[in-house]
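Protocol step 4 of 6: structure prediction from sequence.
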Amino acid sequence: MTSWLSRTSQPMKKKDFQISSFYEPTTSSYAEDTLQFLYSYAYTQRSATPFYIHDTNFYFQPLLKTSPILHYLRETPSSATNLAKTPDAMVSTLQGMSFTSLRRTIGSIYQFNGITNAKIEAFISNFGPLKQTFDAGIVLDVSGCVSDVLRELKSFQKRTGKASLKVFVATDNLDLLKEFAFTGDKSWSYVSFNRTEPPKDKEAALLKTLSEIRLLQQIPYLVVKFSTPLGKLLYLTSSQIQMESQISSIDGSTWKI
């Protein structure tokens, strides 16, 4: 059986032409690798250079729509610079782009193909009808974060005058989810995909992550950390959040590349 994450088409072999830079993942974190992938793409577009990818984690070619401006390589170019290893070199160029321009550039290629979308929708449907509109989305990642998230949600509820809140919770930590459920306001209801321990299978874990991101992108208020790749990725790719006031960063940081 062909793996969902296997390549769907043959990547390019190295040719005689010179490749000066390319992107290759340096971690096993989908959010971190994807953020660097999108930054690298925006950098090459701004610099008017081709964008080459050595997709070692299969996070991009099997998942995204086919695009003539994404050039996948079969092997690592020996003398080229991996943009993921030199993020500081991209910062000044990316900072020269407006946030609107950066988001538009990223949005032009960060689009899942039909197979990926179908798998995400099927995964979400396993948790019942989630056509309801969530008021807020939160990420619970490390011990001690719940009290900060509660503070931001209470402030949001007071600010908006909502009698109750429907909250989507993204987390891999059952203990944090239980803490949120026990200490959250009684007027809140929540949904999470984390009913048991997070899946150990790579494809199942990735599908859960993609599904969480899909829902979070559709919620008009988020509580995240701007110091994390996921917080930055959500702000860049959200279809609902248009300004920084719609997203709270519990680590006190503000948006930056």
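Step 5 (inspection) to follow. Residues 201 and 207 are 10 Å apart (CA to CA).
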